[in-house]
Design a protein that fits this description.
Thrombin, subunit H, alpha+beta, 2 domains, 4 strands, about 25% strand
Length: about 100
């Protein structure tokens, strides 16, 4: 065609190489984005497996609950008098009592 400047063979190879790099980068970005979307979909569809809350909790005399947490076979109550009471889920009995020492 008239008015076009011919390019050297070296420039043509460089342009082909750059085109290949851009194509690979585009494919990598698309695969990365698809991977993130798939992981989010899988993660968000996972069923919640939290154990059920106990019907009632019987605290020792004078104890007032401040916080609650639970695991598969136990649940714990943090009391306002700085103790952690760990209960057995099956029996409801106290497994362990931990005194919280607050540093001055």
């Amino acid at each position: 065609m008239a008015g076009e400047t011919p390019i050297s063979e070296q420039d043509a190879r460089t342009l082909r190489y750059l085109k290949w790099l851009v194509t690979v980068l585009t494919a990598t970005m698309i695969l990365g984005l698809l991977s993130i979307v798939v992981m989010l979909v899988i993660r968000l569809q996972a069923p919640a497996s939290a154990p059920p809350l106990p019907e009632t909790i019987t605290l020792p005399s004078g104890a007032t609950a401040a916080a609650f947490t639970q695991g598969p076979t136990w649940y714990a109550v943090v009391t306002r008098d700085d103790r952690i009471l760990i209960f057995d889920r099956a029996t409801g009995e106290i497994r362990q009592e931990i005194a919280i020492e607050i540093a001055p």
